[in-house]
Amino acid sequence: MELLWSDLPLFVILIWATYTDIKSRVIPDKLVFIGLCYFLVLRIGYADQPYFHYLLGVIAGAGILYVCALILPGCFGGGDIKLLAVVGAALGWQESLIFLCLLLGVAGLFVIIGLLISRDSNRQIPLAPFFLTAFLLIYHFKVNL
Description:
The chain is mainly alpha-helical. It has helices at 2-24, 29-45, 51-71, 78-91, 93-117, 128-144. The chain has six helices and no strands. It is globular, with a radius of gyration of 15 Å.
């Protein structure tokens, strides 16, 4: 049941965000708003954790990226920050922090490999594909454990 009501909608949102981020370097606010509303309403009636864990997921994940963006301007876009709020509302605070670690780990590995291949250190990369990759990794471990 978790697949139908939580995992599948999050997967669709992350695919849509990946497409738009690669195509136009924008994660639409409408997509984020729909996702945030959907998961916050869903978690009122269907949750495996207390509701405040999902609210903390919104604050924890997005808050960490927001602080990083304040400290290092340009490292994360507003769409990335808001998209992590959606992930936090879907997964809860603990799983969203694991998600964030996977997201940054995979993106960091990609950047390191890119720097080894090309010395262009000023290149900006869309982050939404790494959101999708982190989700697939988490989903794989959820299903197989």
